[in-house]
Write a structure and sequence with these properties.
Double Stranded RNA Binding Domain; five-stranded mixed β-sheet; 5 helices; elongated; DUF3016; DUF3016 domain-containing protein; signal
């Protein structure tokens, strides 16, 4: 378990958010080595997984910074399936090299399962849920703008969920 807010002070500062005005965020990655697909393309599994999870944590920090101060958001991620599927390059017609490629097609949608709890400054539970998140239209509309960004589809999926899920809390902050 890591309290992300502490390690995210530089990211919050770049956003112009003071830690005093940001919700506390804790992200627990429950056995990430068993996740459905956090598979690298031509690098170590462990390094890719660590880099991927760190990037998603950094993005979650930005989202949590929009919640009212003194709240605490805790997420426990139980599975992650990145957009696309990793295949040998020879399988997808790119020659007989030993390289792998991540092939992104409509059938390989991004998915994430997690549970969360949001508590107020007294520790009272504001809301909690088990979430089975997936974006079946990740290659259409607004989401398609993010195809060139690392983990763009996954981050857009999280942003849409976050804005829908915490709309009342976000409105209260204004």
């Amino acid at each position: 378990m890591r309290k992300i807010l502490i390690g995210a002070l530089p990211a919050l500062a770049m956003l112009g958010v003071s830690p005093v005005n940001a919700a506390e965020l804790t992200v627990n990655w429950d056995t990430p080595e068993d996740f459905t697909d956090v598979r690298p393309v031509n690098e170590s599994r462990k390094g890719f997984r660590e880099r991927t999870l760190a990037s998603l944590e950094e993005y979650l920090v930005k989202l949590a910074a929009t919640l009212p101060s003194q709240q605490k958001l805790t997420l426990t991620v139980t599975d992650l399936d990145l957009a696309g599927e990793v295949w040998p390059s020879s399988f997808v017609g790119l020659g007989n090299t030993s390289a792998d490629v991540r092939l992104v097609k409509r059938i390989y949608i991004p998915r994430m399962t997690f549970s969360y709890s949001l508590a107020d400054e007294t520790g009272a539970l504001v809301k909690e849920a088990d979430v089975n998140l997936k974006d079946m239209g990740f290659m259409d509309g607004v989401s398609s703008r993010f195809k060139e960004h690392p983990l763009g589809y996954e981050k857009q999926m999280l942003k849409e969920w976050f804005n829908d899920e915490f709309k009342p809390e976000l409105s209260a902050k204004l």
